[in-house]
Amino acid sequence: MASRQDDSAAAALAAVRAEIDAIDDRLLELLNRRAACAQRVAEIKSAAGEADCFHRPEREAEVLRRMAANNRGPLSREAVTRFFRELMSECLALEKPLAVAFLGPEGTFTQQAAYRHFGHAIQTVPLTTIDEIFRSVERGTCHYGVVPVENSTEGVITHTLDSFLRSPLQITGEVSLPIHHHLLGKVADLAAIEELYSHQQSFAQCRGWLDRHLPKPRRVPVSSNAEAARRAAATPGSAAIAGEVTAELYGLAILASNIEDEPDNTTRFLVIGRTGIQRTGHDKTSLLLSMPNHPGALYRVLEPLARHRISMSKIESRPSRRGIWDYVFFIDVEGHRDDSPLAEALQELEQRATMLKVLGSYPRAPD
């Protein structure tokens, strides 16, 4: 009896595996048909003199949203989105690989955000400062840049906001990346750690854990967590706070996992480019504005947003650098600048503010 059951199970397993093989063969054929279509798109654009418009973020956002909505499982929505993101990345690379600047060196969370947004078939260009990222995109050295703008526990990255004051670049996308910090090193145990390297933001995000478990080692701030991992790999008796990807990159062991104080620690990144993008129906718009410094000025300037029922999801003030106690406001609102309610509200804002700059309308990051 057992032998017959084993034979039956083996036959059923062989049948399922044969079906999987047939599906894989069909998938391979369809994937290459899709890639060939992408090549034809490039040829059509080139013949029409539109070779510089090879990347269409709004089209990619539409495809990802449609695939996620049509997914019936058992694959998760995230898995389907990730697969199609990588597929589109590879197909786009057949036309022209995107050069994307990020805050280096290799292995930073900013690089992870770039891969999450564009897929892995891109040329990532590590730069040492946020200013350099803006300049590389402004000069056309890179097609896009990815910069951090705020963290859920530590607030805004002021250097990024200040860069928009002088830059003509547009925001073309956003990425929300869960941040998990790990203690990395080559030491035998925590007691052997004498120096600890990390970015200042990561020290702040792990302060409670460090005070409890590593109160004695000297904390040395560095330019990035990837740089921290590089130093820890080269310095005996040291360790670093960094992401999991840097452990393999720099040959370090994970001494402690998820040491951030807030388990839902998330950083928001902005994608910057030279041109704006069309509406997708699921968009966000970022604004920069200033106004006279007198009572009720902020209420008066922003009143059209409320009247046109425009949801404002963020407001942040920064010194304008034009005078003492003169401020500008960074504001995020729901909708695209071409949507009629928001377009009407922006016309009124422009009349009431002393300065209004639309930093970009772009697809909202998935929830």
TrEMBL record:
Q: Name one Pfam family in it.
A: ACT
What this protein catalyses is: chorismate = prephenate; prephenate + H(+) = 3-phenylpyruvate + CO2 + H2O
Q: What is its EC number?
A: 4.2.1.51, 5.4.99.5
**Organism placement in taxonomy:** Bacteria, Pseudomonadati, Pseudomonadota, Gammaproteobacteria, Methylococcales
**Prephenate dehydratase domain ranges (all copies):** 99-274
Q: Which NCBIfam families match?
A: CM_P2, PRK11898.1
Domain called ACT: residue spans: 286-363
Query: What keywords sit in the KW lines?
Result: Amino-acid biosynthesis, Aromatic amino acid biosynthesis, Cytoplasm, Isomerase, Lyase, Multifunctional enzyme, Phenylalanine biosynthesis
The main location is cytoplasm
Give a short account of what the protein does: Catalyzes the Claisen rearrangement of chorismate to prephenate and the decarboxylation/dehydration of prephenate to phenylpyruvate.
User: What name is this protein filed under?
Assistant: Bifunctional chorismate mutase/prephenate dehydratase
Q: Which InterPro entries match?
A: ACT-like_dom_sf, ACT_dom, Chor_mutase/pphenate_deHydtase, Chorismate_II_sf, CM_dom_sf, CM_II_prokaryot, G/b/e-P-prot_chorismate_mutase, Preph_deHydtase
Look up and give the organism this protein is from.
Answer: Candidatus Methylocalor cossyra
